[in-house]
Amino acid sequence: MALEHAILVSLLEQPGSGYELARRFDRSIGRFWTATHQQIYRVLRRMETDGWIAAQAVTQDGRPDKKVYSAAEAGRSALGAWLREPVEPETVRHELAVKIRAAAFEDPSALIPEVERHREGHAALLARYLTGEQRDFPDPSALDAQQQLQHVVLRGGIEYERMTLAWLDDVLATLHRLHRHAD
Amino acid sequence: MALEHAILVSLLEQPGSGYELARRFDRSIGRFWTATHQQIYRVLRRMETDGWIAAQAVTQDGRPDKKVYSAAEAGRSALGAWLREPVEPETVRHELAVKIRAAAFEDPSALIPEVERHREGHAALLARYLTGEQRDFPDPSALDAQQQLQHVVLRGGIEYERMTLAWLDDVLATLHRLHRHAD
DNA sequence: GTATACATGTAAACGGTTACATGATTCT
DNA sequence: AGAATCATGTAACCGTTTACATGTATAC
């Protein structure tokens, strides 16, 4: 389980409320770990009970009050212990790949719009990553350790999207070829 | 959920028992969808109840009897309906990326052996994919539709591993650079 | 007036993981 | 004698998803 640890990293980078964390998980952290607000609130309560994080109530006017969490010493050392544990190989769940193999038993060209929609999504994501890279890391030679590590993770996302786009083009070419030969 | 559909695809490609399916999920199908035998047996029973698959008892001597499942008409049409549904974007769970960002709050060089172990795993997987490609698709111009679709999915796996290897080299270079500057 | 953003929760259902269980056969 | 392969299952637990719930404030 890494949701606790992803939350710890986010709170170490910047303290925040459950709501703010949920928004971060929709954006930067969500690139490599997704979570809904329900999960986040539940885990935050457990982490507070365990002393990994500390909450501070912040009253706001014009807006609901919020609880701002920050990482506590116990959380920091738990993160360190987790870092030294070996990573289990990630379990793969690639629905589109299942569909592509399933297409052999239906009309393969019916998948073309689906794959094109996927392709557009990945192209849009790549564009957002590249914009974010220029905004957040304009001068790669002037980054501290934290930023360099954030940047290398972002580069991974960028390369993943590039590879995926090229592969989806390959998939589309294959589907079109099968379509032509089915005529 | 796609486990049902992954099982259907596998049974359409080749009927088999729960045990045989579990082995396939450890190999070819496991490239893009993982499942343990417990999950598989549970889902097979549900699918049989729903009429998606049909079982045939096969008595063997020298070995335990087995139930060989094959896809039924209802399963085939369920697969077709699923194919026409839009794919939800996959939820990402990339534990190593969380660790890399977490490394900013610990000694980053402590992650180096971990990343190297990961790198070796991906290199070994790439080698297996390439061997499998040569064995199963020696002549890409002489493939039927089913094989072409299997091949394009395998090419996706190969490109994913290549990209990951290059990225892990990038990560290692970053960690080494941080280590040198920390001296 | 309607939609969106802010802010936090409960409850139920589902899917996946881990541990345990059984029993025969073949290979070393 | 012990390990690995074949073959199928139960039970408990945990994490994730989805639906429901509430209420204020701001923007259009």
Q: What does it look like?
A:
Two copies of one chain form a homodimer. The first copy, chain A, has helices spanning 3-13, 18-26, 37-49, 73-84, 95-102, 112-136, 145-182, and strands spanning 53-58, 66-71. Chain A is mainly alpha-helical. Chain A has two domains: 3-83, Winged helix-like DNA-binding domain superfamily/Winged helix DNA-binding domain (Arc Repressor Mutant, subunit A), CATH 1.10.10.10; 95-182. Chain A has a two-stranded antiparallel ribbon. Chain A starts with a helix and ends with a helix. At the A-B interface, helix 1, helix 4, helix 5, helix 6 and helix 7 of A face helix 1, helix 4, helix 5, helix 6 and helix 7 of B. Chain B binds a DNA duplex (28 and 28 nucleotides) through residues 1, 3, 17-20, 22, 34-39, 41-42, 60, 62-67, 91.
Oligomer: homodimer
Low-confidence stretches of chain A: none
The number of E-state strands of chain A comes to 2
Distance between the termini of chain A: 50 Å
Radius of gyration of chain A: 21 Å
Output the number of helix runs of chain A.
7
Protein chains sharing the most extensive interface: A-B, 67 and 67 residues
Strand content of chain A: 5-15%
Strand order of the largest sheet of chain A: 1-2
> Mind summarizing the main beta sheet of chain A?
2 strands, antiparallel
Mean pLDDT of chain A: 94
Cα shape of chain A: elongated
Task: State the helical fraction of chain A.
Answer: 55-70%
